[in-house]
């Protein structure tokens, strides 16, 4: 069974049971300084789990593209991934355990035809405030799960909140007990390194969690105690890749169709096929996973940089380069095509656009990797980091192969000194909205909108925003354009911006449905990042505006507050992507 078939079966199954399929949240969330990426389907649904009515109703379902940065270093075994799809269904104060658990059992055993004797379940064992979840246990027993395959675990394993156990939850945080389903790979023998006895939560590889039903019914009160939410909710999550792995009865996630295109391209340049060299398989998996994650990030508008989402992309590409060099002795990354056939719930850019970004970053790193690798063990780990741009995890891997370790305390102290030396007066991230709200940054934010529109007017409507960054000292704007701007073009852009500043145009904020804003001509080159009801900033008269964009704000009230804009320099970011730096005078 293919991944497309499993995804479709899941969505269809819950649509038939009264659920509405909702579009997935963007991989990169707008105006959320608390997180870099969407890491689960419930992340954008928290307000509705707390009682706010959802416009689509009380029963929802989707497949959510997700990235978990904390798993980057874990990738290399047969089950961890950086990018994955999370199949999810939700009840917002509607059905609860009595409906959810039988439905999941039916989907797994009838729709996917998983053998019942391979399925084990886990349940919350209870705590001081929350009783043992006997309700779920009784439901599982009625469904035919033998008691010997029902395991009770503490909050560390069978309680969900964004903060951890009930004791770790801050005031106002929501959470609840969960019940998981595990698939048993009977062909995998228990590894005694992980304990005398094997059980569903054992890390030996015999069991794989494929389904988790969370019963969100509590909130942490001001007195530190759990209190009932006004509604009982269900939040289900099941990793698509893991479910397909179980359907195939193969404990290696990387043997499923979603990874095979990447694996086969690497095999073309290696003397040893995947699966024939346990030591080399780790590098195969890292390249396959990181390339796939990089494709998704670039398609979401992320470009390599030294912070935020861009730094994660840079780490992924550099780890790819490092591990492809171990496989074939060359730093050239493989070409991957025909990704659209997997019907990802995320619009992919063309391979030419994706590869130009990946190749540009890979080429930059490959120039230093050979020399740097020769110096591993000869100069300090921080020297490799500072001089050759080696991420810490690559330094650790390279030293481990020589039987050496990184002294992380020494590295941390050196890194802190480096940060102090290079720290600027103020820094802020701008992705359709500002993280910092200083007066100067707000001015730069409005100046960015003027720059964006001026570039489109002077160079053409092919100009698309590819990224932005604002500090208290300057603005940086990335945009699609095939060639370097001439001096005359820069002069025209700068002149138009300052003309609009002199006109003292009013800046107006409106809240409206995203679809309406787009129909009215508002710019939004990452529209999927914005909520259904969003802010729109207009520069100039509402009926004849100069600039109109979906944006999180904030902005100045009138353009004359900016003073003057001076374009300082331009540079190439990747093939077809230019970068401009500008300052206020």
TrEMBL record:
Enzyme Commission number: 6.1.1.7
Domain Alanyl-transfer RNA synthetases family profile: 1-585
EC category name: ligase
One GO term of the biological process aspect: alanyl-tRNA aminoacylation
Keywords: Aminoacyl-tRNA synthetase, ATP-binding, Ligase, Nucleotide-binding, Protein biosynthesis, RNA-binding, tRNA-binding
GO cellular component terms, A-Z: cytosol
Highest taxon listed in the record's lineage: Bacteria
GO molecular function terms noted in the UniProt entry: alanine-tRNA ligase activity; aminoacyl-tRNA deacylase activity; ATP binding; tRNA binding
Family: Belongs to the class-II aminoacyl-tRNA synthetase family.
NCBIfam families hit by this protein: PRK01584.1
Protein name: alanine--tRNA ligase
Taxonomic lineage: Bacteria, Candidatus Woeseibacteriota
């Amino acid at each position: 069974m293919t991944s497309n078939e499993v995804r479709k079966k899941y969505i269809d199954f819950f649509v038939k049971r009264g659920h509405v399929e909702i579009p997935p949240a963007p991989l990169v969330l707008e105006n959320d300084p608390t997180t870099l990426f969407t890491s689960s389907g419930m992340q954008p649904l928290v307000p509705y789990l707390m009682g706010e009515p959802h416009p689509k109703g009380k029963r929802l379902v989707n497949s959510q593209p997700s990235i978990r940065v904390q798993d980057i270093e874990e990738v290399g075994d047969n089950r961890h991934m950086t990018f994955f799809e999370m199949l999810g269904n939700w009840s917002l104060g509607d059905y609860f355990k009595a409906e959810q658990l039988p439905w999941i059992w039916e989907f797994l055993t009838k729709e996917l035809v998983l053998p019942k004797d391979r399925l084990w379940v886990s349940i919350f064992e209870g705590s001081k405030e929350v009783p043992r979840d006997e309700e779920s246990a009784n439901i599982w027993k009625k469904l035919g799960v033998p008691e010997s395959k029902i395991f009770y675990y503490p909050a560390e394993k069978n309680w969900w909140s964004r903060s951890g156990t009930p004791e770790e939850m801050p005031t106002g945080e929501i959470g609840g007990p969960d019940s998981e389903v595990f698939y048993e790979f009977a062909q995998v023998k228990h590894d005694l390194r992980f304990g005398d006895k094997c059980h569903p939560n054992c890390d030996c590889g015999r069991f794989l969690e494929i389904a988790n039903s969370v019963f969100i019914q509590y909130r942490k009160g001001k007195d530190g105690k759990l209190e009932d939410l006004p509604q009982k909710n269900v939040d289900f999550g099941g990793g698509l890749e893991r479910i397909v792995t179980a359907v195939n009865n193969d404990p290696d996630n990387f043997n499923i169709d979603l990874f095979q295109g990447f694996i086969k391209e690497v095999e073309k340049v290696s003397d040893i096929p995947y699966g024939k060299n346990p030591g080399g398989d780790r590098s195969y998996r890292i390249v396959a996973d990181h390339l796939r994650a990089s494709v998704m990030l670039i398609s979401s508008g992320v470009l390599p940089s030294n912070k935020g989402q861009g730094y994660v992309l840079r780490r992924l590409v550099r780890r790819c380069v490092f591990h492809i060099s171990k496989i074939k002795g060359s730093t050239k990354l493989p070409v991957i095509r025909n990704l659209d056939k997997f019907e990802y719930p995320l619009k992919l850019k063309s391979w030419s656009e994706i590869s130009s970004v990946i190749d540009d970053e890979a080429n930059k790193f490959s120039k230093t990797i050979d020399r740097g690798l020769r110096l591993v063990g000869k100069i300090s780990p921080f020297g490799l980091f500072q001089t050759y741009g080696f991420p810490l995890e690559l330094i650790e891997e390279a030293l481990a192969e020589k039987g050496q370790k990184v002294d992380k305390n020494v590295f941390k102290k050196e890194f802190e000194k480096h940060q102090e030396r290079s720290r600027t007066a103020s820094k802020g991230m701008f992705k359709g909205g500002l993280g910092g709200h200083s007066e100067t940054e707000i001015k730069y934010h409005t100046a960015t909108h003027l720059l964006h529109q001026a570039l489109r007017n002077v160079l053409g409507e092919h100009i698309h925003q590819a990224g932005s960054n604002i500090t208290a000292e300057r603005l940086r704007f990335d945009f699609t354009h095939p060639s370097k701007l001439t001096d005359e073009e820069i002069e025209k852009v700068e002149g138009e911006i300052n003309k609009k500043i002199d006109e003292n145009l009013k800046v107006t904020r409106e809240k409206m449905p995203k679809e309406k804003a787009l129909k009215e001509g508002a710019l939004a080159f990452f529209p999927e990042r914005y909520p259904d009801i969003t802010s729109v900033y207009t520069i100039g008269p509402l009926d004849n505006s100069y600039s109109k964009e979906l944006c999180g704000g904030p902005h100045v009230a009138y353009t004359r507050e900016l003073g003057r804009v001076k374009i300082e320099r331009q540079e190439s970011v990747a093939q077809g992507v230019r970068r401009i730096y500008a300052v206020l005078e």
